[in-house]
Amino acid sequence: MKKSSSLYLKFIIVCCIFFLLAGCSNINSESKNGKMTADTVQQKENIDSKAEKIVASMSLSEKIGQMMMIGVRGKEINDDSRYLLNEYHMGGIIFFDRNMQAQEQVRKFTEDLQKNSNEKVPLFIAMDEEGGRVVRMKNALIPPPSQQEIGQSGDIDNAQKWAQKTAKSLKEMGINVNFAPVADVGSNDTRSYSKEAKTVTEFVAAAAKGYEQENIIYALKHFPGIGKGKVDSHKELSAITASEKTLQAEDFLPFQTVVKNNNPDNYMILVSHLKYTALDEKNPASLSTYIITELLRKKMGYKGIVITDDMEMGAVSKHYNFSELGVKAVQAGADIVMVCHEYPHEEDVYMGLLDAAKKGEISQSRIDESVKRIVKVKLQHLK
Questions:
Q1: Can you give the residue ranges of the Glycoside hydrolase family 3 N-terminal domain (predicted)?
Q2: In angstroms, rounded to a whole number, what is the distance separating the alpha carbons of residues 219 and 130?
Q3: Domains of the chain by range and CATH?
Q4: How confident is the model over 205-226, as pLDDT tens digits?
C-alpha cells in the first residue's frame, strides 16, 4: 500500500512539472501571436530603462539633434557633413541620388557617417525606395515596380516579397530606414497600390510584414492620406475637403490597420503637409495638434515615431519661416523634423527648436518624450 502511494505521489509530481513546463512554453510562444511574454516584457523593460538613462545623459543640444533628419551634399563624408554631425548632433540623414553612385560607395559613406557622428546612439540613415518613379540609383540597383503595378498584380505576396528584396538591398549599403510603403488610397499617379481602401490596406500590411522580416525600419506615408489631394505639396499648400467620416472609412484605414496589429517600434509614420478642413481648418497635418496628437496618438493609439515630410516643400516653406516650422511641428506632436536639402534651412530649424526649448515654448518633458521614442527604436534596430 505504501509503495502504491509512493508511486502515485511521484506520478502527481511528474504531472505537475510537465504542466508547469508546458505552461512556460505556452507563455514563451505567445510572442508569435503578438502577445506580451515574460521574456518580451523583461526585454522591453530593459530597453526602456536603457533609453531613459541615455536620454538623461544627453545635453539639450544633443536631444534637439536627435529630433532632426537632414540631407547632406556629396558622395563621401566631408567637412560640411562632419560639422553638421558634431556641431548640431544630427540624429538622422536622408540620402538622395546626389549621395549615391554605387553600392560599395554608399556602404563606405554610411559607415563613415556612423563613425563620425560621435553620438550615444547610431544615426538613422534613410532613403525613399518606394518603387516605380520614386527610386534611387536606378543604374546600380534593381528598382522595385511601382506600388500601382504591384497592386494591379492582385497578388498580396508581391508586396511582401518586394519589401523584403528592397530591405535587403538597403541594409547591405548601411541604410536602416526606408520611407515606404505609401499608404495613400487612390492617389492620381502610380505611387498607390489601389484606389480601393481595402486593397491598399491589405498590400500595405503585407509590405510591412516584409520589412519587419528583414529588420529594417519602414515609414507609412503620408498620414492621414494624400490620395484625395489635387495639388503637389512640393509646390503649394492644398486642402482635402472630405468629411471626417469619409476619411475614417477610406484614407485612415491602411494606417489604422498597421497601428492596431504591428509593434510601433518597428516603423515610423510620416505626416503630410496637406490641410484637411474637416480635421483642422487652420493647419496642415504636419503642424496640426489635432491630427498628430488627438487623432493619431490618442484616437488611433499610435505610440511610435512621427516624422514630418520635408519642411522645404512649398506647402509649408512658402508660409512659415524655417525657424518656426520645427517648433510648430514638435508642439503639434511630431518627434522628428525632416529638412532635406539646404544647410542654412537645416540650421534654422535646429536653432529654432533649441531656442524654443530654452525659452520654455517646448517643455523639457515634451522633448524627452520624443527623444526616448527615437532612442528606443535605435536600441532595438541599429547596431
A1: 60-377
A2: 10
A3: 58-381 (3.20.20.300)
A4: 999 999 999 999 999 999 999 9
